[in-house]
Write a structure and sequence with these properties.
With about 130 residues, the protein is of the alpha/beta class. Helices cover about 30% and strands about 15% of the residues. The protein has a domain of about 60 residues: Nucleotidyltransferase, domain 5. Strands 3-2-1-4-5 form a 5-stranded mixed sheet, with helices on one face. Helix 2 packs across helix 3. The longest helix has 19 residues.
């Protein structure tokens, strides 16, 4: 008698796929139940606009190392004191640094370090866009 070879059947095991889908279903069901209910409330009105954005402090340094804060020249020795006075305790204000391309990088790092010592954490580097 002749013996026929069995044909190999290719199939994908569906058990891992079903497990993953089930876990995703549980995850989304649980996270959707933790959302806060939305309340319909009417806020009171007042005249004037609230000032929620803090003022920006602009620090500029030219190629020779001359420092200006808000357009006023400041020596390096008085940099921290001038920032402390301008911030008036509000360290959530942003500092924008405008530095000349040829300025000393060490001076830039020193200015950022002095601003961090006061408590500033938001620094932005101002640059020109390429054309």
């Amino acid at each position: 008698m002749f013996h026929r070879p069995k044909r190999l059947t290719t199939s994908i095991d569906m058990a891992p796929l079903i497990d993953v889908v089930f876990l995703l279903l549980i995850f989304f069901m649980l996270t959707s139940s933790f959302s806060l209910p939305s309340l319909q409330i009417k806020l009171p009105t007042a005249h004037g606009q609230p000032d929620s954005t803090p003022e920006v402090i602009l620090v500029a340094v030219d190629a020779q190392g001359a420092i200006t804060i808000q357009g006023q020249p400041v020596p390096l020795s008085l940099f921290k004191e001038k920032l402390r006075v301008l911030s008036s305790g509000q360290t959530d204000r942003k500092i924008h640094f405008r530095g000349d391309r040829g300025m000393d990088y060490g001076l830039f790092v020193e200015l950022m370090d002095r601003a961090r010592q006061i408590g500033f954490i938001q620094f932005h580097l101002v640059h020109e866009t390429k054309r």
